[in-house]
Give the backbone structure.
Amino acid sequence: MSAKITVIDHPLVQHKLTLMRRVETSTAKFRALMTEVSLLLAYEVTRDLPLKQETIKTPMTLMEAPVLASDKKLVVVSIMRAGQGLLDGILQLIPSARVGHVGLYRDPMTLTPVEYYFKVPHDIEDRDMLIVDPMMATGNSASAAVHRLKQTNPRSMKFLCLLAAPEGIAHFHEQHPDVPIYTAAIDQGLDEHGYILPGLGDAGDRLFGTK
Ligand code: URA
């Protein structure tokens, strides 16, 4: 199966992403922008959701009208903690989605992910899964999360991030050629600490004001 990456280059997404990248953007503004961007990203990622026809009554007449066939069948999985930032906007758009959480932290020495939390709904086999984490840097956390989530056997999987580094994309695609990636931008690369350049810094710290 060939790996797929979609860059969501909508002008509103790109403009808001630039505001998020700016070092002078405050925590409150960064958080608000993350919610706005995640709404727009969710709109693009859900483009292929299947529709079904339902008979409804308008004030004028009966009609066959389209409704989502699977709106109750989506599970959004946040890779903590920065994934929380993308979750808010997505849930505004798809309030009936179920939510899972995977807690991973990066060992600062090895940059490899360590799992500290895992909770997903029980009926995953019937659900399409959207995994969210703003930053795909080395791709180690994303790959580890997807490995773990594959054990729950979802119907399909997509990975959504805000920024991706080429190294992370290559690593992720090697491990998971069956999981398409959606991102707002592909940046230049990584620094020696595994941070994305030019990037936007530590997404978790910027979201929660912890630095
Ligand atoms: N995680 C972040 O929050 N930022 C990076 O640049 C890389 C990983």
The mean pLDDT is 93.
